[in-house]
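Hi all, posting the design record for the shared folder.

TITLE: backbone redesign
STEP: 1 of 1
STRUCTURE INPUT:
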């Protein structure tokens, strides 16, 4: 039997490839297992659903972004740190953009997956705040997480259509939305 980390990686890769090829709605759990070269009995103990595979994919992206966090960046302004963290996230997602576009397109017809992914996005944004050196506890922390999640969702739409090599459209959208957020709240870092 394959190791758990091997199964995770193979399942995530297969799920994203199938989403890109045929859309998320048409992709079945059994197809993911088959494309990953796994029996359903091998996949089930690791991922009980297709949605669980997407959540694991998001967590892997979180880990990549967090691994790129440099403690020396703590001296940078809050807005710059947030911009850097979120752009690193979009860069990490870039190889899977077509699959993500297909998943986003199908989410309105799958409210359970949409709700689970919204919860995971909130968790991810909590970690992105931490990576930027911002507190995420208490009422202020909750508001920061929610604000960042909304800002990220707006920028995700831009990112899906950003064909520039340096993701300049996405960076401009993030910068503009961070400015708006500062205008409304006096700054996400305060």
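Okay, here is what came back for every position:
SEQUENCE:
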């Amino acid at each position: 039997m394959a190791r758990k980390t091997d199964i995770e990686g193979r399942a995530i890769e297969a799920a994203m490839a199938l989403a890109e090829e045929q859309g998320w709605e048409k992709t079945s759990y059994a197809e993911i297992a088959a494309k990953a070269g796994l029996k359903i009995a091998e996949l089930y103990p690791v991922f009980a659903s297709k949605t669980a595979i997407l959540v694991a994919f998001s967590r892997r992206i979180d880990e990549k972004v967090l691994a790129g966090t440099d403690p020396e960046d703590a001296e940078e302004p809050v807005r710059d740190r947030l911009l850097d963290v979120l752009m690193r996230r979009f860069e990490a997602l870039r190889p899977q953009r077509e699959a993500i576009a297909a998943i986003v397109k199908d989410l309105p017809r799958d409210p359970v997956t949409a709700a689970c992914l919204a919860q995971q996005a909130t968790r991810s944004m909590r970690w992105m705040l931490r990576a930027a050196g911002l507190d995420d506890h208490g009422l202020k922390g909750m508001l920061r997480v929610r604000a960042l999640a909304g800002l990220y969702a707006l920028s995700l739409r831009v990112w899906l259509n950003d064909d520039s090599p340096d993701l300049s459209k996405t960076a401009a959208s993030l910068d503009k939305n961070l400015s708006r957020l500062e205008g409304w709240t006096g700054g996400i870092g305060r």
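COMMENT: The radius of gyration is 17 Å.
Let me know if anyone wants the other runs.
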